[in-house]
Each structure stands twice: as C-alpha cells, then as structure tokens.
Amino acid sequence: MFKPVGDLRNLSPDAEIALAKACCQGEREAQFRLFEQYKRTMFGICLRFMDNRLDAEDLLQEGFVNVFKDICKFSGKGSLEGWIRTIFTRTAIDQLKYKQKILKTIELQDTELLVVDHELTDPNDPEQVILMLQKLPTGFRTILNLYVLEDMSHHQIAKELGIAESTSRSQLTRAKDFLKKMMLKSMLLV
After folding, report:
1. What class, spelled out in words, does domain 104-190 have in CATH?
2. Ordered DSSP codes for 95-148
3. What architecture (CATH level 2) is domain 1-100?
4. pLDDT tens figures, 11-54
5. Domain residue extents for the chain
6. Which residue of 70, 87, 132, 176 is 20 to 30 Å from 149, comparing CA positions?
7. Tell me: the pLDDT tens digits for 125-172?
8. Sign of the C-alpha dihedral computed for residues 69, 70, 76 and 80 taken in this order
9. pTM exceeds cut of 0.70
C-alpha cells in the first residue's frame, strides 16, 4: 500500500517509483495523489495545445486515462513528471490528428483575417499568452508547442507528426510571425 510521505511536490526518484507502482496496483489513494500532484501542470499543457477550455478539459481527462493505462511502464529513468508530460504531448498530437485539423498548410494572406479579441490586453500576462496561443491555427500552435515548449527538435517533430523537417521549420516561422502580429494588434487595441 502506498504511504504518502508529506508533500508530493518534490518526490525523490524512489518515492516516484513507489507512487507509480501503487498506481499500477490500482491503489485509489495513490492514483488520486498522482492526479492532484500533476493536474495543474498537465492542464497548462492541454490549454496550449487545444483552442478552447472544453477541449483542454477533454484532453486532460484522456491524458490521465493514458497515464493510468501505462503507469506500469514507468521505469524510473527520468522524472515521473517528464514521463507524464510525454504521454500528454502524444495524447494531444493524437487528438489533433483524429480531428483531422493538424498541419493544414495555411498561407499567410489567410491569416490576415484574424480578429483579435479585446480581452488580449497584456502580452506579458501568462493567461493572455495562453489565450493568444489558443487563437493560433492548429498546425501553428502544435509546432510552436512541440518546438518551443516541449523542446523537441525539427527532426523529432517531423518523425512524430509524419511530416518533412522543412514543413516543421516553415510552420514554426509562420507561427512566430502570426503570434507577433497578434501581439502587436492586441497592444494597439489597448
């Protein structure tokens, strides 16, 4: 049986393995603790990949289903949080592929039609940045998340998404340009 030892925020590698093992054995308290420990961080990842809160909540649920389905595979190599992040990133990619929206080539002239919400008033506020990320077209948002926030190389992104490395590079460039335009427009509205 899993015995919680104080705060779960800074678990030692041995404690992470013990928590994962308890979850693997179906111990509800351990599963609840794992969920409580990582739900906020993983929801942040979900918000970055999805274009609205409801889809992010669905992704959070699906991600934790996958975590608990595969928790017995956690070997203790690397952190438990890193392992969970990887599962959430792959789950997000799978959901985006399933919706058949991912990586449609978007011409820059099409992006000029973007309407910036008046809510986007402070590009330095993390919540405002997430709102801006959610406004990005799916392909742009996905590449930007994987490259900048998940620290994947263009080679890794290309392999994971089944695209050419050059497509990953061009989508990243376009995503950055698009995000800059949105930030400039939002600052002009202030």
Report:
1. mainly alpha
2. HHHHTT-TT----HHHHTT----TT---TTSHHHHHHHHHHS-HHHHHHHIIII
3. Orthogonal Bundle (1.10)
4. 888 999 999 999 999 999 999 999 999 999 999 999 999 988 99
5. 1-100, 104-190
6. 70
7. 777 778 888 888 888 889 998 998 889 999 999 998 888 999 999 999
8. negative
9. no
